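Long-time lurker, finally posting.

We've been working with Aspartate carbamoyltransferase (Mesorhizobium denitrificans) and I want a structural starting point before designing mutants. I don't trust myself to interpret raw outputs, so I'm hoping someone here can both generate the structure tokens and explain anything notable. Sequence follows.
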Amino acid sequence: HRHLLGIRGLSPHDIEDLLDRADAAVAISRQAEKKSAILRGRTQINLFFEASTRTQSSFELAGKRLGADVMNMSVASSSVKKGETLIDTAMTLNAMRPDILIIRHQSAGAAALLAQKVGCSVVNAGDGAHEHPTQALLDALTIRRAKGHIGGLVVAICGDILHSRVARSNILLLNALGARVRVVAPSTLLPSGIADMSVEVCRTMQEGLKDADVVMMLRLQRERMTGSFVSSVREYFHYYGLDAAKLAHAKPDALVMHPGPMNRGVEIASEIADGPQSVIQEQVEMGVAVRMAVMQALMDPRRNTGAAQ
Ligand code: CP
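Top reply, 14 upvotes:
Generated this for you. Predicted structure of Aspartate carbamoyltransferase:
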């Protein structure tokens, strides 16, 4: 079985193929009759150990639009609460013969671990601070549709890089497609290995946003913070929150992106989140299309290589 565990391992051709498939899925989703029969007879299980609004609902809608039977495992009311392990839970669901298992888990490597154990395709919907591949694909689709291409664009990824699986997957994908990636963050919110990630590190928004084509803001992930990574939310917004004055350093037609959920007034001002340069709602729409594309590629009997690792 083939899986999508991360952007690492995908070739530029694999990524472009998924984005092309997603463009076709956007067309299906914009029809009055949204349902196709591509995954008819297939069973998809969504197994989310962490909270989600966008990813879980878009995976559910994506499966339904492709005609699959979709089951959302409610972890909060499952036997996980009685101490059942991740592997035992997954093996139990595996015995019900799903074709695709979508997993979100707080531990890095959880999706890869399951992929070794179960007899179906596994899609990583976010594993700790490691990867969130469908988020990077939907971000790339949003950028490609707005700008026509990704190669050569200057993309500034700003904020809590340290705790962000979204940042990691986006850095891998954008570099694979030839964008120039900058990260903008205080030193307390940068991972130690950032120097090896082929990015330009900027300490101020002015430097990082200068002539940027895309400004990608990240949520301050306070639930993953154990110490004091920021002195105060007020100070964080002053230096790193996206407002009109900071956005003015980017190109006039720069896209403003945020994966959600947003902390308004912490990493982004409401007037910018809801402003004319924001493509945050487009990102959500592209999320359904990308998830349709990924599941369709994984289940495509004509494809034996590529598209997913
Ligand atoms: N962007 C994202 O993964 O959002 P959710 O946590 O709501 O799924």
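Before you design anything, note these points.
Residues 1 and 121 are 5 Å apart (CA to CA).
The longest strand covers residues 121-127.
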